[in-house]
What does this fold into?
Amino acid sequence: MNAGALVPVIVAGMQEKYIRAFRQAGVTTPASATTLERVGCRESSVVGSLVRQGVFVAMDGGRYYLDTDAVESLAAHRRIGVMVAVGTLAIGLVLLMLLR
It folds into this structure.
């Protein structure tokens, strides 16, 4: 496995760490929005990707909250990606066995 293949796994792990921090702090509504520092996170490309995906919702004053519906959508998207990868691998193995 090459190092480039690990990047999505590493990013997903970092995203989960940030999501868990917001969940544990109870920052899941606009009223509870807080700064990244207050939940032990820092500004990064991971936060930017979560904002673009709608998982973190940016508010005024550098505050964010976690959209739990968007988290579920992200998890479903990841599950589909894993199923497609496993299915592709299975088809490849079957073809390899048939072509022997």
